[in-house]
TrEMBL record:
Keywords in alphabetical order: Hydrolase
Record has Nucleotide-binding as a keyword: no
Name of the protein described by the UniProt record: HD domain-containing protein
Entries under Pfam families matching the protein: HD (PF01966)
GO biological process: dGTP catabolic process
Natural source organism: marine metagenome
A GO MF label: dGTPase activity
Gene3D superfamilies, alphabetized: Hypothetical protein af1432 (1.10.3210.10)
Domain HD span(s) in chain numbering: 76-155
Length: 155
């Protein structure tokens, strides 16, 4: 029998440290929606990131520019998958919420502009009079405003 949301949340209570962020304690969503039946709120968040257009575009963004190609060519997607694996392992070792940790790790680079940190610096200079540009804030804007997966609300 598959685990429903309540069973998954019960497993969290049994496995995670008391200082961890439990799915049941999520502050909710900007737009009210029904509780997931077969996954936790943070599992749904993680899945939404994985299925977003912004996440898929990470495969087209180069992480490090090197001369030549081959196995040294890196994309933001491969970097993000490695960050997620490391973050999950750390969360597991510290008995934190692995799903929340993975969602944060998978979404951490969604707001990077083209040309890496040089592009971010150029945008920051251009936007200085309007609050600047910072890729972490842009990542949040991407998942909350720019993605249009649902007809009733953005994100």
């Amino acid at each position: 029998m598959p685990c429903n949301c309540e069973e998954l949340e019960s497993r969290e209570r049994d496995a995670m440290a008391p200082y961890a962020q439990f799915s049941v304690d999520s502050r909710g969503r900007n737009v009210p929606e029904p509780r997931p039946e077969w996954r936790t709120q943070y599992q749904r968040d993680r899945d939404r990131i994985i299925h977003s257009r912004a996440f898929r575009r990470l495969d087209c963004k180069t992480q490090v520019f090197l001369s030549g190609s081959g196995d040294h060519l890196r994309t933001r997607l491969t970097h993000t998958m490695e960050v997620a694996a490391i973050a999950r392992n750390i969360a597991r070792a510290l008995r934190l919420n692995e799903d929340l940790t993975e969602a944060v790790a998978l979404g951490h680079d969604l707001g990077h502009p083209p040309f890496g940190h040089s592009g971010e610096q150029a945008l920051d200079n251009l936007m200085r009079d309007h609050g600047g540009f910072e890729h972490n804030r842009q990542s949040r804007r991407v998942v909350e405003l720019l993605e249009h997966k649902y007809p009733a609300f953005p994100g």
